[in-house]
Structure formats: C-alpha cells, structure tokens
Amino acid sequence: MGYRILLDRYGRWQQRWRDPMLTGLLVLLALEVFFGLPLLRTSYVDARVFAIAWLLMILTAVLVAARHWIAIPAILVSSVFALVANITRINDPSTLTICIGSGSVLLFMVALVWIIWSAVFGPGRVTQHRILGAVVLYLCIALGFASLFEIMLALSPGAITGAAVQGKYLLIGQSMVYYSFSTLTSTGYGDLVPVHPLVRSLSNLESVIGQLYPATLLARIVTLQLHGREKPK
User: Is the pLDDT score of 177 beyond 80?
Assistant: First the structure.
C-alpha cells in the first residue's frame, strides 16, 4: 500500500514537471552542442564540467521518462557505456572504442527521442515547454546521425573527406556534429564531403528529415493546440 502511494505521488509530480523538464533538457543539450563541444579542446572548458553536464542531462531524461520502464534502462545502460568507452578512447582512439562509444550515444539518442516524442505529442494541453521539446527532438536527430557518421569514419577513415578520426573526443566527434547539423539544415558548406556510398545515403536521409521535420512534426503541435481549443459539443 505504501509503495503504491509513493508511486502515485511520483506519477503526479512527474506529470506536473514533465513539460518544464523538456525546457531544461533543451538548455543542457544546447550548452553541450553549441558551447561544450567547440570549447572542449581549449583551456576554457574542463572535461569534468562536460561530464557533469552529461550526467545532468541523463538525470533529466530519466525524470522525463518516468514510467517508461524500457526507455529508462536503455538510457542508463547506454550512458554508462558511452562514458566508459569515450573516456577510454581519449588515450586509445581505436576503431573498437570509437564504435562502442558512438554506438552507445546513438542508443541514448534513440531512447531520448522515444520518451520526448511521447511527452511532446502525448495527450494534454500544448505548452511552450512542449514546443521546446520538439526542438530537443531536432537536436537529438542531428546528434544521432553524428554518431552514425563517426561509426562509419571509424570503419572507413576516408568515408568523409576533411574529417579526422583521431583526436580527443569525449562524446561525439566535433567535426561530425558540425557535418550532421550542416546536412540536417541543408547548409552544405562543402568543407566535409561524403564519398562512401552508405554515408551518402545516410546524408541524403538526414537532409530529407531536416526538410520534412518543420513542415510535419511542428505542424502536428499546431493541430494538437487547435484541437485543444475546440469546445465540446
């Protein structure tokens, strides 16, 4: 009986704070992508600070997931593997450590997309936090493809010209994050060029998703908002 009461209280608390935590998740992701990764190789950011931000993001993701009993273990297990493998590959950037680290990050992003999708497009009133959660989905797509590209680079170092496999990467290679966002937004500066057939196919897929996402998923949020304003007959 006491266990059920605690579980119900936690469920009500999570239902109340799930949407605001989507905003917190966006802040953490944006800080890591646009500030943490670019400054990681400089003296301005310590790797331990980056690891703390990563742990905070994991905690926020678990709180958003709440009763997603499959997504929570996937997040925790992939996070542990990602931290161990990527810290190991700082001194030993081998094909194995890069593939394990990037594969773990990819699994983490897939689980994150799953739970955020449920939070953004689930029943209930559409709020500003949900709209920001849709932006989190966009960032997760880019980071997921960045992991795929880095795995391809580890297996075939010449798959993308201008990209380096070696280096002190903590989570995802900075150049692959840059390439993934350039592809997703169809910017295409031309400094990184895919030459491997599979990488080209993945790049095409990502660019198509990047074009369709604003026109479909964000439009879905508007539809949910309109349905929420309709008065029952």
Answer: yes
